[in-house]
Amino acid sequence: GFMTRYERKLFDELKSPHLKYWVPFVWFGNLASKARKEGRIRDSVDLQTLMNEMNKYRSWCSLLFGYDWVGIPLVYTQVVTLAVYTFFFACLIGRQFLDTDQGYQGHDLDIYIPIFTLLQFFFYAGWLKV
């Protein structure tokens, strides 16, 4: 509903190996210039502001296209997975209680389920899966 049938036909006939998100921006720029020449846009500053906003929006679309085009390397996900599990294993070892048979002063037997370590692991593992 954003294009006329004629515009849709022109858009579909355009051959491009990439996405054609930029075509409506070119059409918009041409129509804005034509509107300035015809006096529909009265001031060049207004035209400049309009074109700046359009260029800002086009650069956001280009940035989004770049993120879509370049995938995340598989090695990155493997490294992050290894880091999450290694961190969890280190936390399980490092957060153990001290052996009371050794006679450490001020340290009583502290048997507990490491709730915060488990929550931390679930958070990181969940974040990893996302």
UniProtKB/TrEMBL annotation:
The keyword Ion transport applies. One of its GO terms (cellular component) is chloride channel complex. Its main location: membrane. It catalyses: chloride(in) = chloride(out). It is a multi-pass membrane protein. InterPro entries: Bestrophin, Bestrophin-like. It is found in: Cell membrane; Membrane. Keywords: Cell membrane, Chloride, Chloride channel, Ion channel, Ion transport, Membrane, Transmembrane, Transmembrane helix, Transport. The chain crosses the membrane at residues 82-98, 110-127. Pfam families: Bestrophin. GO terms for molecular function: chloride channel activity. Forms chloride channels. PANTHER family: BESTROPHIN (PTHR10736), BESTROPHIN-3 (PTHR10736:SF2). Belongs to the anion channel-forming bestrophin (TC 1.A.46) family. Calcium-sensitive chloride channel subfamily. This is Bestrophin homolog.
